[in-house]
Amino acid sequence: MSTLPLFREERPDRLMEVVARYPFGLLISHVSGEPFVSHVPMLVERDRGSFVVLGHLARANPQCAALQSGGQVLAVFPGPDGYISPSWYESPGVPTWNYVAVHLKGRVRMIDDPHELRGLLERLTSRFEAEAGACSSPASLVEHFEGLLPHIVGFAIVADCVEGRFKLSQNRPWVDRVRVATVLRGSGRGSAMELAEFMDRVREESDRG
User: Fold this and answer.
1) What is the rounded CA–CA span in Å between residue 31 and residue 45?
2) Exposed e or buried b per residue across 67-85, where buried means at least 16 C-beta atoms within 10 angstroms of its C-beta
3) Which of 157, 158, 161, 141 is nearest to 149 (CA)?
4) Under a CB-based contact definition with an 8 Å cutoff, are residues 29 and 72 in contact?
5) What was the pLDDT predicted at 1?
6) Nearest partner of 171 among 4, 2, 1, judged by Cα
7) Do residues 33 and 137 touch, judged by C-beta distance below 8 A?
8) What is the pLDDT of residue 149?
9) Could you give the CA distance from residue 91 to residue 65 in angstroms, rounded to a whole number?
10) Average pLDDT of each block of 10 consecutive residues along the chain (209 residues)?
11) I need a labelling partner for 37 at 20 to 30 A (CA). Which of 71, 89, 154, 189 fits?
């Protein structure tokens, strides 16, 4: 990821917040020499200081077979984004796009062992059932779909490269940053309001020095 120092985010807690809030990411690798992307809900955990990305793929997915050799993969977690009009500035400017994104790159290990795969599914289900406000038991759900386990393969990526890019108008004067966040927040659109939230926090942190 091309990351100018002004927009670079390296704090582990802030990066974890993004991957936790926006878990539906892109798993990127090569299949038969060509770039290949799967859209996958993923869980990111910390293990002895490292970021570990967990998820699963359908066994029929061509990417699944390609990853069995344990190559390098890239997991991308896009956060909120939005168009920024120069008409929102007090000073002259040009159109641009603000966004939040986190990239995690590392070597993948495929999870085929039934016991380990079942545990992985329980962890994933527990996380997303809780966020959805549902009341299903993760263990009972996995047990219900036991017959489907042979048709999926889990994966774990220990990231050796973690990059965050928070492009949130940090290059603009303070008044412009306030105006942009105000317009985004007033739009009533979910992604725009979330983007404004990130902008407010980054601006407040810079104000505190």
Assistant:
1) 27
2) beeeeebbbbbebbbbebe
3) 141
4) yes
5) 67
6) 4
7) no
8) 86
9) 53
10) 84 95 97 95 91 96 92 96 97 95 97 92 86 68 75 95 96 96 94 96 84
11) 189
* CA pair distance 4, 74, nearest whole angstrom: 20
Residues 46-55 have pLDDT tens digits of 988 899 999 9
Do 82 and 191 meet the contact criterion of CB atoms below 8 Å apart?
yes
Domain ranges of the chain: 5-170
Q: Which residue has the tokens 């309001």?
A: 193
d(CA 34, CA 76): 18
Separation between Cα atoms, residue 75 and residue 71, nearest integer Å: 13
Distance CA 121, CA 141 (A): 9
Cross-strand partners of 40: 25
CA angle (115 as vertex; 71, 20 as ends), nearest 5: 60
Taking the CA atoms of the chain, what radius of gyration do you get in angstroms? 20
Distance CA 73, CA 187 (A): 37
Classify the phi-psi angles of 33: left when phi > 0, otherwise alpha if psi is within -120 to 50, otherwise beta: left
The backbone torsions φ and ψ at residue 205, rounded to the nearest 5 degrees and listed phi first, read: -65, -40
Q: What is the pTM of this model?
A: 0.91
Q: Phi/psi at 137 (nearest 5 deg)?
A: -80, 120
Instruction: Return the closest-CA partner of residue 156 out of 40, 62, 61.
Output: 40
Its CATH architecture, for the domain 5-170, is Roll (2.30)
Give the N- to C-terminal CA distance of the chain in Å, as an integer.
27
